[in-house]
Write a structure and sequence with these properties.
This protein has helices at residues 22-32, 35-43, 87-99, 158-176, 218-227; strands at 2-9, 15-18, 46-48, 51-53, 57-58, 62-68, 71-83, 103-105, 108-118, 126-131, 138-142, 148-152, 186-189, 194-200, 203-209, 211-215, 240-242. By secondary structure, the chain is α+β, with helices and mostly antiparallel strands. It folds into two domains: 2-118, Alpha-Beta Plaits, CATH 3.30.70; 126-242, Alpha-Beta Plaits (2-Layer Sandwich). Helix 4 packs across helix 5. The longest helix is centred in the C-terminal third of the chain and has 19 residues, at 158-176.
């Protein structure tokens, strides 16, 4: 399920944020959830394969904007897409969005003007998806001296596809508590991917955006659409929408 959230400011004044604003959206979404469920999600989440998943994702803010050095200024209204396959998350979020008087992003207080709910479904074993936030795929490796470093992969590399599949299977097993369906997902970029170098709480993250065609088991494609593609989804990465 996904939510198309329209946000406005008082007196239609500009919404000014740091260019790297993902953390502020993530924080606002957690504040919109039931407190007990938000604590469970933040501290524990859903586990599989030794990894923990939050099983939600969100887009970049969408609207007219202007970049001024280290800040980005949006002219309201702005739109945000939030998606999750978890019913409890969806119910808690919609209740919170409609009940709270303000949606706070850093020092800005916005009002939820409207929320549109959709439940897009995958038909068959092919999915064309347009990314609303970059997809992040990485491995943590070790140097000969024992220190860790992060290696990011780009579309077209075999490790990119392998890790996407591993991630989807783990998400499926974490959500449904049963083995993922047989078969793998093939991923093809429909145009030259664009590299994005971002920061989240001071940490450099590399991701890519492009329209993709995915072919594979329908349940895994549905999960890619609802929970996000790749890693770090709850930080605002890998959110996509169906290309009809």
């Amino acid at each position: 399920m996904r939510f198309y959230v329209e946000l406005v400011t008082d007196s239609n004044k500009e919404l000014v944020l740091p260019i790297q604003y993902n953390y502020f959206i993530q924080s606002a979404l957690y504040r919109s959830l039931d407190q007990d469920f938000a604590s469970f999600l933040h501290e524990q989440g859903y586990e599989s394969g030794g990894r923990k998943f939050k099983l939600f994702t969100f887009s970049r803010l969408m609207g007219r904007f202007q970049i001024n050095k280290d800040t980005i200024a949006f002219k309201p209204p702005v739109k945000l897409v939030v998606s999750s396959p978890v019913n409890e998350f969806c119910q808690s979020l919609i209740n919170g969005l409609l009940a709270k008087e303000a949606f706070q992003l850093e020092k800005n207080y916005l009002r939820v003007e409207s929320v549109r709910v959709e439940n897009p479904g995958v038909n068959g074993e092919t999915l064309k998806i347009r990314l609303l936030s970059p997809v992040v795929v990485y491995s943590t490796l070790f140097k000969p001296e024992g220190t860790k470093y992060t290696c990011y992969f780009q579309p077209g590399e075999s490790e990119f596809t392998r890790l996407i599949n591993e991630n989807l299977r783990n998400k499926y097993e974490a959500l449904y508590d049963k083995n993922a369906p047989e078969g793998s997902v093939d991923i093809k970029s429909l145009r030259q991917p664009r590299l994005h170098v971002m920061r989240y709480k001071g940490i450099v993250i590399k991701g890519y955006s492009a329209p993709f065609e995915l072919k594979g088991p329908k349940p895994l494609l549905q999960l890619a659409l609802e929970a996000g593609l790749g890693s770090k989804n709850s930080m605002g990465f890998g959110c996509g929408e169906l290309v009809r």
